[in-house]
Structure formats: C-alpha cells, structure tokens
Amino acid sequence: MARKLRRLxxxxxxxxxxxxxxxxxxLPGTIIVDADAPPPVIFLIDYNQTNVxxxxxxxxxxxxxxxxxxxxxxxxxxxxxxxDILQRLGQVFDLHPLVLEDVVNVPERPKVEDYxxxxxxxxxxxxxxxxxxxxxxxxxxxxxxxxxxLTVQEEPEHDCFEGVRSRIEKGKGIIRKQGADYLAYALLxxxxxxxxxxxxxxxxxxxxxxxxxxxxxTRQTLQNIYQIRRELLxxxxxIWPQRDAxxxxxxxxxxxxxxxxxxxxxxxxxxxxxxxxxxxxYRELASxxxxxxxxxxxxxxxxxxxxxxxxxxxxxxxxxxxxxYGMNFNTEKSPYNMPELNWYxxxxxxxxxxxxxxFGLLFLFWQRGWxxxxxxxxxx
Amino acid sequence: MARKLRRLxxxxxxxxxxxxxxxxxxLPGTIIVDADAPPPVIFLIDYNQTNVxxxxxxxxxxxxxxxxxxxxxxxxxxxxxxxDILQRLGQVFDLHPLVLEDVVNVPERPKVEDYxxxxxxxxxxxxxxxxxxxxxxxxxxxxxxxxxxLTVQEEPEHDCFEGVRSRIEKGKGIIRKQGADYLAYALLxxxxxxxxxxxxxxxxxxxxxxxxxxxxxTRQTLQNIYQIRRELLxxxxxIWPQRDAxxxxxxxxxxxxxxxxxxxxxxxxxxxxxxxxxxxxYRELASxxxxxxxxxxxxxxxxxxxxxxxxxxxxxxxxxxxxxYGMNFNTEKSPYNMPELNWYxxxxxxxxxxxxxxFGLLFLFWQRGWxxxxxxxxxx
Amino acid sequence: MARKLRRLxxxxxxxxxxxxxxxxxxLPGTIIVDADAPPPVIFLIDYNQTNVxxxxxxxxxxxxxxxxxxxxxxxxxxxxxxxDILQRLGQVFDLHPLVLEDVVNVPERPKVEDYxxxxxxxxxxxxxxxxxxxxxxxxxxxxxxxxxxLTVQEEPEHDCFEGVRSRIEKGKGIIRKQGADYLAYALLxxxxxxxxxxxxxxxxxxxxxxxxxxxxxTRQTLQNIYQIRRELLxxxxxIWPQRDAxxxxxxxxxxxxxxxxxxxxxxxxxxxxxxxxxxxxYRELASxxxxxxxxxxxxxxxxxxxxxxxxxxxxxxxxxxxxxYGMNFNTEKSPYNMPELNWYxxxxxxxxxxxxxxFGLLFLFWQRGWxxxxxxxxxx
Amino acid sequence: MARKLRRLxxxxxxxxxxxxxxxxxxLPGTIIVDADAPPPVIFLIDYNQTNVxxxxxxxxxxxxxxxxxxxxxxxxxxxxxxxDILQRLGQVFDLHPLVLEDVVNVPERPKVEDYxxxxxxxxxxxxxxxxxxxxxxxxxxxxxxxxxxLTVQEEPEHDCFEGVRSRIEKGKGIIRKQGADYLAYALLxxxxxxxxxxxxxxxxxxxxxxxxxxxxxTRQTLQNIYQIRRELLxxxxxIWPQRDAxxxxxxxxxxxxxxxxxxxxxxxxxxxxxxxxxxxxYRELASxxxxxxxxxxxxxxxxxxxxxxxxxxxxxxxxxxxxxYGMNFNTEKSPYNMPELNWYxxxxxxxxxxxxxxFGLLFLFWQRGWxxxxxxxxxx
Amino acid sequence: MARKLRRLxxxxxxxxxxxxxxxxxxLPGTIIVDADAPPPVIFLIDYNQTNVxxxxxxxxxxxxxxxxxxxxxxxxxxxxxxxDILQRLGQVFDLHPLVLEDVVNVPERPKVEDYxxxxxxxxxxxxxxxxxxxxxxxxxxxxxxxxxxLTVQEEPEHDCFEGVRSRIEKGKGIIRKQGADYLAYALLxxxxxxxxxxxxxxxxxxxxxxxxxxxxxTRQTLQNIYQIRRELLxxxxxIWPQRDAxxxxxxxxxxxxxxxxxxxxxxxxxxxxxxxxxxxxYRELASxxxxxxxxxxxxxxxxxxxxxxxxxxxxxxxxxxxxxYGMNFNTEKSPYNMPELNWYxxxxxxxxxxxxxxFGLLFLFWQRGWxxxxxxxxxx
Lengths: 380, 380, 380, 380, 380
Known about the structure:
The structure is a homopentamer. By secondary structure, chain A is α+β, with helices and mostly antiparallel strands. Chain A folds into 2 domains: 25-294, CorA soluble domain-like (Beta Polymerase, domain 2, 2-Layer Sandwich), CATH 3.30.460.20; 302-367, Methane Monooxygenase Hydroxylase, Chain G, domain 1, CATH 1.20.58.340. Helices cover 53% and strands 14% of the residues of chain A. Chain A contains 10 helices and 7 strands. Chain A has a 7-stranded mixed β-sheet with strand order 2-1-3-7-6-5-4, sandwiched between helices. In chain A, helix 7 packs parallel to helix 9. The longest helix of chain A is centred in the last third of the chain and has 66 residues, at 259-324. The first copy, chain A, is rod-shaped. Chain A starts with a helix and ends in a 13-residue tail after the last helix. Mean pLDDT of chain A is 84; it is low at 1-20 and 374-380. At the B-C interface, helix 5, helix 6, helix 7 and helix 9 of B face helix 1, helix 4, helix 8, helix 9 and helix 10 of C.
C-alpha cells in the first residue's frame, strides 16, 4: 500500500515536481529537456477533400513544403526528449519563445493563448490504465495556424487520437471538407471525451467502496477513499482550466476559428461541463463515504464495548457472590459466621441465586436490545 | 440493503455510465442506439383554436403534411430504441447532427441551444416511484420550430404531460389560442412542477429519519441518510442546469418565443428556483441529521461505558474485600493472622462493610447523575 | 420532544408540502383553495391628507368606488379560504392570472414582479410565538397600483401592521401626505423589522444553550441545537429572497415608486441586510456549539474511562494478591508451600503490601492529574 | 467562566438585542434613547491653516456660527443619552430623519449614504481592553458637510482619535491645509488602524492556545477556542461592511471628497483589506486548533484505554490462575484432584508460572509500543 | 516541538505583529524604522544594449546622475534599518509619502498602485530554508519609473534575483535590449518562480506524512499536519493578492509598461495561477490527511478495545468458575453441597470444562475476525 501511495505521490509530484520549474531568474523561453523523456517521433498527415498523405518524418524541416499549401497539414510530435529537434521545430513553425517554453516544460496548466497568426491550446489528456484503477495523464499542446495544426504530446505511447486519424483516412464525416480549425476541434473533442472512460472507472470504484463500507470496512477501505479523493482532485485540476480555455476559445473570437467550428466547440464545452459535474458529484460521494466509514468505525467500537459490558456486568457480580462464600470466616466460632455454608441446601440455593442474577441481567440486556447484533442490517 | 444500494448505484451509473459516451475520437453527431431501449412510439397532436387532431403514427414521414400549416403540431416520440426511425426523424425535422446526437445519446446535461430556426431544450423529468421513496428520471428533449414542437422522451411509461394533453383536447385555458412556444412553456412548466411531488417524498423521509435518529438510531438509519444525500445530489444536478437553461431562454431573446410566453416562463423560472431552494434546504437538513446521528452514537457509547464503569467500580472493590477474607493465613499461628475470621460478629460486620461500600458508591454515582438514563429525552 | 419535532416538521412541510403545488400539467393561473384556510376578511382604509375612512367590507366589489379616486386606498384581505371571493377580487383589481396564482397558492418564494400598471411584491412575515421559542410565518402579497395597495395575508390572526394603521389614523409622520408607494414601503419596513424580535429570541436561546453545553450537556441540548439550526435555515430562506426583491425594487425603477420613497426603501434594504447578517452569525454560532457539544461528550467519556481505569488499575492487582493467598497449597507438605500463611506477621505484612500498592498507584494517578475532575472549569 | 460567557453574550446581544430595533411599524426616523446611555458631551474644533479653536460646548446651537465659515469645523458628540440634545443637533445640522435614526439607534451596520449635500458614514470602532483579551466596540457616525464634520460616538470613554486631535493642534502633516474631507479620512484611517492592536491580541492568544493544546488541553481550552471564534466572527462582521463602505466612497465619486483625499482613502482601503485578511487567517487557524484539540482528546482517551487494557490483560489471567488453586477439590478423594497442592515445589512453580505469564505479556505490550507514553512528543 | 511552534508563531506574528502598524491616528506617510532591521545596502546596475555598470553605493544621492539617462538604472536597496537613508531615498526618487510608507512599514499586502509617472508593486518573495522544511518570506517593493527601477528588499541575505543580474551582465536573452519595464517583469517572474521550490518541499513533506499516517501515526504527525496547513495558509495569503496585482498590471494599461512586456506578464500570471492551484491542492490534501489521521486514531482505539474485550470475555467467566469451586460450602453437612469437590474426576472435569469454555470463546472471536490485527494492511 505504502509503495502504491508513494508511486501515486510521485506521479502527482512529477506533475508539480523537480523538472517542471526552471531555476527562478532564468531566461524566459528557456526550454528544459528531461534526459529520461522519450525521443520525439514526428508524424505528418496532409489532406484535402480528395487526397491524404500520412507518413513519419525524421527532421522537422521536412514539414516545410506542406505548411503553405491550402491542404490541411497535421504535424504530430510525440515525445519531448531532444532539445535539438524541439528547437528546430520552433524555427520551422516560427513559434514565440514563450510558446515553445509552454509546450516543452511540462506540465503547464491548460490554457488558450492567442498569438495573432497562431493559437496555442495547452490541453491535458487522460487515458485509463488497463488493469488497476487509475489513469495516465499527459500534456498535449495544440498550435493552430492558418493551414496547419502542430500537436506535441509528452510520449508516443498513450493517445486517444486514433479515431480522428481513421476518420481522416477513410473520409468519414465532414472532417476532410473542413480546415485545420475543425481538426483542432476534433482532437479537443477526443481529449474531453477521453475523460468519460476514466470517470466510469471511478464510478465503479465508488460503488465497490460503498459495498465495502457497509459489509466489511477495514483500514484499507479508508486508504482507498483517500486515494480516490486524491485522484479526483487531480482530475478536477485537469478539467477545470480546460473548460475555461474552451469557453474563451468560443467567445474570444480568434479569426483562425470559423463560425461553424464554433458551434461544434459549444458541444465540446457542454461535455467538459458534464465532466466537471461528474467529478464534483464523485467528490461529494467520496466525502460522504468518509462520513459513513467513520460512523461505521464508531458503531463497531460500540458493539465491542457492549460485549465487554454485558460480559463484565453479568460475571463480575456473580464472581463477587462466589467470592463471598469463598471467605474463611470460622463457622464454628459463631452461628452468624456464614451459616449458609452448613445449610443442607446451601450450595444449590447459592447456585440458584447466581443463576437468577445472571439470567436476570441477561434478560435486562436482551430487553434493552443490547444482545441484538446491531451491525446486521436488514438487507432488502 | 447492499443490493438496493447497488441498484441505486447502477441507476446513478446508468446516468453517467457505459452507454452514455461514445468512444473518444468518433465522429461528432454519431448516434448510439441502446439495444435494450424501448422502440419509439410516435404521437401527433395538431391543433388550432378550433380543431384538434390526435393520433398515433408509425413513420416519422407522416408528420410532414402537418409541419408547415399554421396550426400547432406536437410530435411526441417516446422511446429511443430504433436507429432507423430516429435518423428519419432527423431528416423530417431537418435537425443539425449535433441536435440529434444530444437527443439520442442520453443522458445529456439540461441546456438550451439556439439553432436559428430551431430551439433545442434538453430537460430532465422526474416521476416519483409509487411504493418506495425514489424517482424515475428521464430525459425529455424539446425542439421548438415555427409551427411545431418535437419532444423526445426516453421511454413511453412515465410521463407528466397528461395534464397538458387534456388541456389541449378540452380547450381549457389559453393553450389553444397560443402558438408552439406556449406549448413548449406548458410542457416545461409540467416538468418543473413534477419535481414537487418528488421533493415532498423526501421531506417526509427526512421527517421520519428525524424521529428515527432520536428514538432508535441504527446503522440502517445511517445508510438511509447517506442514500438521501446521494439522491438529493442527483436531484440537484438535474434542476440546477435546468434553471439556468430557463433563465437563458428568458433573457437571450430567441425570435421563436413571444413576449407573452416570456412572462409565463418567468413564473416557471421562479418555480425552478423554489425547487433548487428546497433541494438545498433538504441537503442541509440531511447533513445536520448526520451530525445528530454521530453524536447519538457517541452518547450511546457513553451510556454503555457508564454502565460498565458503575458495575465495575462497585463490584471490583467488593470482590477485593471478599478476596481478602478468602486468604488462608493461618489464624492459629498468630493472633494477628486474620483474627476477624474468628470474631463472633465477623461475617455480619464484613457483609455490613461491603453493603456500606456498595451503597455508598451507588449513592455517589446517583449523585453525579450517572444512574439516570441520559438517553431518555423529556418529550413534550 | 418527538411530537414537538414532528409538529415543527409539519410546519416546515406545510411550507413546502401537500397543498403548495398543483398537479404537474395543470393550467397556469389555477388557484387552489385549502378547505381548512380561514375565510377572507376584508378591511378597507382610504385616506388622504385630511380624511381617513376605515371599515370592514364583505364583498370585494365594495372597493371599486375608492380605487380610482386620488386618495390612497388600502385593501387588506386576511385569509385565503374562499375561491369565490378571491376570484372576484382578481376581477375587481384586474389581476393577471399568474398574480392571482402567486397570491393564493401559498407559499410562494418572496419576489417582486412588474406588471406595467401593477407591482407585485410577495413577502414573508414572521411573528414570534409568545411562550415557546419559535415563530409564525405567513405570506403577505402586496399589489401596488397607482392609487391603491392591495395586501393579502394568509390568516387574520398574526399581523405586524398595527403600527402603520395607527400612524394612518392619527396622521403621525408623513404617511398621510404620501402616496400608495409610501404605504407599501411602510408595510415592507414593518415586515422586515418584524424579524428582529424573532432573532432576539434566537440570540437568547443560543446564549442559554451555551451555558447548557458548558454546565450540563444532555441529548436534549443536541436536539435543541439541531432545531435552532433548522429554524435559522428557514429564516434564512425567508429573508434572503426578500432582500433581493427589495434591492430590485430600488434599482429597477418602476414608475409606481417615487424617488423619495426609493430613499426610504434603501433604509429598509439596509435592515434586511442586517437581518441576513444576524441570521448568518447565529448559524455560525450554532454550528460552533455543535462542535463544543461533541467535544464535551468526548470529554465526559474520557472522564468515565478514567474512573474505570483508576478503579480497575488499583483493585485488580490487589485482588490478585488476595487471590494468591487464597490458594490452597498444602503448607504441610513442603516448607516452600506458602510459608507466609504460617508467619506470625503474615497477614499484617500482606495488608501492608496491599496498602502500599494501592496508595502507590493512587499517588501515581494523582501525580498524572487523573484524579482532578477535568470537567470542573475554573469559573472566573 | 459561565458568567464571563454570559457577559460576552450580552455584549453580542447588546449589539443586536433589546434596544436596537424599534417596534415593527413605528414611524421611520423615530429615535430611541436608551435611558442608561451616557449624556452627550460635545466638543468643537475649528481650524484653518493658521488658527485652531478647541473647546467643549453645551448646546448644539453654539456650533452654528462656525459651520458656514471657510474654516473646517469638527463637532464631536460623545454619548447618546439625551433625546432633546440629539434632536436639536438634527435641526442645527439639518439632518434627514433617516440619518438621525441611523446615528442614534445603534448599532447600525457600517455603510455609506450620500444625501446630496451631506455624506453619512456609519463606522464601527474597536478599542482593545487593557487587561483581558477582548475589545470595546462602539459605533461612530461621521456626517461630512461642505466645511464641517459631525461625528457621533456612543460614549465618551474609549476613543482612538487622540492622535488626529494632536495633529490638528500641533499642525503636523498636511491636515491643517486640507478640508473637512481630509479630516474624515484621517478619522476613518484611525478607526481602521485601531483594528490592528486588537488583532495582535488575538494573534497572541491563538499562539498561547497552540501551546496549551499541545501541552495540556483542558475543557477550558475548548471554551477559549470557541470564544475566540465567536469574537473573530464579531470582528469580521464589523470590518467587512466597513471595507465595502470605504470602497464605495472611493468609487461613487461624491463631490464632497476631493481627488487627493481619494488617493489617501485608497490606502485606507488597503488597510481594511489587510484587516479582513488577518481576521480570516485567524479564523482558519482557530478552526484548525479545534481539530487538533479534538484529536488530542481522542489520543488521551486512547492512552487511558491502553493503560486499562495493559493492567487488565496482565492481572486478569493471573487472578484466574490464583483462582484455580483456590478451588477446594478434595485432594484426598482422588490423586487427580489438584495434586499440585501437595507437591513439594507446588507453590514456587505456581509463582514462577505466574511471573512468566505476567512478564511475557508485559514484554509483548512493550514490543508493540504500548508502554511508551505516546503523549510525550519529542521536542526539538 | 513547542518551541518550534512558538518560533513559527512568531514568524507569522512578525508578519502581522508588533511593528507593522503605527499607532492609530498617526500621520499617514509616517515611516517606522525597526531598530533591529539590517542597515540598507544599495546596489546600482545601469545598463544599455552595449554597457553595464554595477557597483555598490553608499548614499542614495549617488544614483541621481543615472536616473535621467536613457539607459536602464536598477537601484536595489537591501535592508530597512536607517530612517535617514530611506527618507533621502524618497527625496531622490520623488516618492509619494504613501509609497514610502508602504515600502518601509512592512509587511504590506501585495498590490499594485499607479502614481502617474511611477508604478508601485508590492511583492512578497519566498526563499526555501535549506535544512528544515519552511521558508523565509520577505517583502520586495518595486517602483518603476520611465528609465529606472527601484527595488527595496527587507534584508540583504535571501534573494532570488541572482539569475537576472547574471543575465544583465552576460547579456543573455533580450533583457539588455529592453527597458525598465522588462526588468520589472524579469524580477516579478523570478519572485513567482521562487514559489515552486518552496511548494516542492511541501509536496515532499505531504508525501512523507502520508506514509507516516499509514505506518505509525503519532501525535507528532498531527502537529506536522497542523503546521503544514498553517504554512500553506501563509503561502496562500502571499500568492493570492500577488496574482491579482499582476492581473491588474496586465489589464489596467499603465503607460510605463509596453505591449510586448505585457505578453510576458501574461506568462508570469499563468505561473501565479499555477502556484495558487498547487497551494489549494496541497491544502485539500492536508485536510484529507487530517481525516485519515483521525480515523487511524479511532481504528487504533478499536483494536485496544478488542484486545481488552477478548481478554476479559475469556478470563472473567473462567475466573467465575474457579470462584465457584473456591466456595467453602460444607460438603459434610449435605450431599448437595458441592459434591463435585469430592468426585474422583472432579478437578480434571473442571479443568476440561474451563478449557472448553475458553477455547470456545476464542474460536468465536476468531470466527468474527477479532483476532486478526486489523491494522496490518495488505501492502501491494
């Protein structure tokens, strides 16, 4: 558990941690390349209504002939592991130093920035992990130009753009008839829709935890609730600024985005709001679960106490009675010294008295309902 | 209980769960038909000030002749189980692909969208369950055109529009004199008013829980409080965006809604605010109940502890005294070895001492108020 | 207690409960008359700078001659128990169907609505109960016309308008020199000022509860805190929308309200804000009290536990010692078998050892401060 | 303690309590004079760049000759105990009835109101108590005219204006070169700065409570935390509306306040924000302390329980062993009847077994860390 | 611990404490010099695209020749310990009295103020402490003029401007080509970026505390959580107004800041938002940890109680049985008086019965899962 939490913590820390800030006072626009990051792989897709070209390229400069044509060019860079390639990319696309910094020095907070002839959208993509509950989180930067879209992902592995790629290749829907702005919308839509499978996982886990809290709450349950709250917090921090960024895309009216695409973005915004809504609902449910857990613990302690009290309250008086007749007062010295010991029916009477006391107390406890196991809940 | 919660969870999950998102990256406007959904049943009501036609139709195309006439046509589709019919419906009413997606891929968040000659209102209707406390929740999409209103419900069973239908047929009120916008208002009003009976159920349940928390709080009580909080959370998520949507209907000034209807919508908005208000009040009451429950549990543990302490504090010293006179010091070897055992009044004195100790402690506890049953509350 | 809570609950429920919504889908403007409501009593006061007429009337139509004159007519309807009279009233004053609905179908949320030549203000009036802590809550609807003011109260019993009536009759202040708008202000001011005596009651009760939580917290205390929170919640729901309504009265600039009266309304608004402020403060105090209560309960359990532990820790070891010398090892078989029993000073030494152990432990506990009664607080 | 809390409560109640509202429905502008209030003392300071006159006057009418001159006249009324004088004051300064009501019927919520040729500023002044932690709270009303400033304080005792008076007399700074608006600013600045010494007291007290919660938390600690939260709540209610009032002074642009003074007011506003900030920080610290207190109580109960458990778990089994050998089975009837009693080494072996059991359990508890006093915190 | 907390408290108090307010009513613009403050050290850097001059000066007047030239002059004052020098500085730079007050009377809340030809920015710089977790916090005031930037720091020791100084000297980036506004931006950027290393420390500490709460929660853990919450509160109070101030720098459009620098400030604003975001996340994590801590304590008490109950419930009945056969009923007087004592197998049977009872109870407890150590969490 501890190791798991630590790994999680590192994951969170990684997002805010060592590599993600440069030393205070360094040159703005400085880019820092993490030595462990995967080397960039670059894919180029160039399409118009009739043709599609898709191939992998090695040097950023190979894009140049495609950028100025009327066809839409989508350059998809996956991996941030080479300072050289990233800087050449910056020159090819004529990126502002601050844009390059935002793209490379991950993680950056999701946002949209308008640089006259380019629009920068920093997004955060989540991909559910297959086995365990959890998700990979990766920054995707979209730089939209007149006839091109440059996307930069942190790593080549996880990606939720396959559907868009196949729509381009097969010419499904209107994507081939539209410009680079529609492509940007399609990718954003895929990113936002990518939150739903992750949220579904959390919905299931909360459901499981609800059962667990009722049936058999352990300390592990508590850990799980804490962890879910923590991960939902992280999801919330990813989706919240993304929603705002999409909203300002819709309203601020950059010339790079057509009216028609704006209508589609409104739909994308609605989905982002829905994701927010669900995250907040799950957060409230998780903190409600914490309350239920705490009172389940209290209830269990109550039961333990009751058992102790019932046992003690019954046997301590009985033991006292037994203790009395264990005293060694000399019955020969005086007729008042424990004459019971010499009675013919002394022992049976004594046992009978004890039985009456014991069962009497038991009856009293039963009457007050202490003997019912309050943890058994009528299941209907 | 567990099964009940699971069912509930599924209900909530259903609203956010498996079927309600398409794979990230799929074509926007793709509609997904749930195989288990009931097949659509279509009703057409066409009326003007003098005539009413009401009949069930089987093919969406049968509506066409009614749509362009000056009379108001209300096409009510109940059930989402046929992709073919839904797509033909989209063609007949010339729906934007995003509209069709919103209508079919339930659940969508309540909202209003203005598509020049059509107005889309996604609403959420709740219908109380008859026996148990709870409610059915269903999406109703209203598409308002110049002379027609298309409504799409998830299933044909539960519905709160019967009152409106009968007002149309019997010509009660001004509904026959008004256009499709008034019809849309009348339906929205019915949807919002439909929250009140559901809320009344929760008011009653909270009242019951208050009694239960005072009289006999069990773990079941806790489950019930948690469940009410959960269901109120769901209600809140339904009514909140609905209120905003009605508000933007009033203010944004679509041409499809007349000034006169806007006044009526203001009334509808007031009711939505009132619903919100009540939901928030109930939520605060429910979380107050949680506090009361937790301290009721603490109080009960307190009582258990008190009983244990009273019994122990009285009998443990007495048992010690009995233990002393159970020791086997040889009285013959020394006059100092337990001479009490040979006293004439030894045993009676010993018992008397014990009685004094026992009743003395009892008196002390009584004086401190420990013997009163603090759980008995003076009922006035 | 339970009955009291139930009665309270009903009071709250009554405000949201059975009668206050019509069946979803019914005609807007439908008025529902509660069979148990008191029959309406109508008072007419007509005054100008020189004359005052005040008498009770039976038929709404009797007002007609007064309404068009330049003198101010105040028609005060008390009771909602007759559908016939209420509908005739609607005709006499030419009320919009929605206005009549809002006035009759209580409770409505406080609000202000502008209907060109009429201004509807839905207010909520509270009147403190004489004996117990609590308040009556009643809806007052004010309909302001050019030269008249129609007020509709739920019942004839409680009322805080007597001061205004006497000012009109005695001609105190400027009320006789002003129009119907000033009369509306004077009534609103009386309604808002009516919250202060109720709040004072709650201030006193919170003060009492503070003493109680310190001196002798019982479960009843908890109930009382919960109840106060509940009632303050209700007060908050009454005053909040009222404040907003007065604010929009000031800003929205209806022609029915003169500039001069607007200055007075600003004062009324300040009072409403002050009421809000006090309600929020009391709510925070009440929830702070809950915290104090919970830790008082914890503290008390702590003390009980300490007593149990002190008694057990002292007597259990002593009883063990007594138990040792109660063993029956045969001292004749061996010199090692409990030779103490045959010692000359055996018993006194044994008692002495016990005394040392007992008082030693007692001293240790005293040193650790366990014997002080931590619940006694130095009162300064 | 209880008496102290009661006194405090009365102080708070006094602010909202008996005397501070008139009967609902009374004439607006009615002033209510508290019979116990101190009689008004009136000071007049009249100054320009060259001269200063300062003397006490008895009748409000004595001010009249000073008011119209170009020199700045500051009339400072201390005490609200005479209806006659207050009403004559209203006539001398030509106050609107609502102004006089706000000034006299304390406490009023801090606010600013613009009456064409007069500006009313209701402020709340706090003065720290010398010995105990706490503060006096008093309403100060400032009425700013063209060439005069009228200030009305509740009582003559506490006051934070001495610094301003001396600056006027000694001609320090620019105060003598500026108009009445600068004087109003100087007084407001003194009022806001007067919150800092009070806050410093609370900072010290919170620091003390932190030590107390760690070292020796008692029920008194809890009371103190509650009381601090209560008093901070009161401070917050004083400063919050004051900040808003200063802000609207700056923005609303009354002609009575010059551009230059507005710059100074901006500084005053910054200080009010800083006060707010500190109050909120202290409130959060105080509620964090409550959490620490609650878990300190839990920890202590844990320790008590551990001690009880250690003592019981060690001695109860031992007592049982002793009990076995205290049984009276007849060793003569059978060789199986407690032959141990007749063994040569019986008693020593029995004691040895007891010792092994006892120290074994002790060792186990020591190993689990139960014997360490968890309440001792390593102090570094 | 206590001393540590006290030191911390003083640090916090110092920020709000003794020296930071002047006596209410003193002259605005009065500067108060703390006798213990370090004496000011003044550095001058004057640069343009080709030359850099950097040297320490002793008298503020030495700056004068540099201020009016077109080159950018950065005067950096470190230390507030001399009233004389600070006032001469005010004269040299022609500072408004209120500016000088804000600069000298630390701490002031971060803010930006526009004085026509000067722009005052009060910032708060944090520098992580090397060994312990914590940070130094210092006010930096920036006064931006046409060709100069005056910065005033509280003390000469900690500083995060070294990177900027070296960029100026080595001519890295565009800093030498830009004006004083860019320099101000560079410093602000260094200040904001300086929060990240501090936040990283807290991220690590929270991670450690998570492990600690799981593995071995002590009272020290609680103290640490409280302290982290407290310090995060302080960080939040530093960054929140700073973010607002940067935002108003961007929007309010002072002429002293060029369009180009405004783009850079936008980047700086994004970083401030990111800092806010992280502080809030850490605060939520810390308060979640408190919940986990509290239930860890409850769980532990549960275990203690269980052990006590298991031991008591097993041995108390057994001791009772032993007590019965320790009674001294006279077997000779009656065949019914404890005949078991004289049975041939009496003792073995008695022991067997005890064993059956004891192991039976043990089995029952084992079956209910009480013997598992619930605190052992499966670590995966």
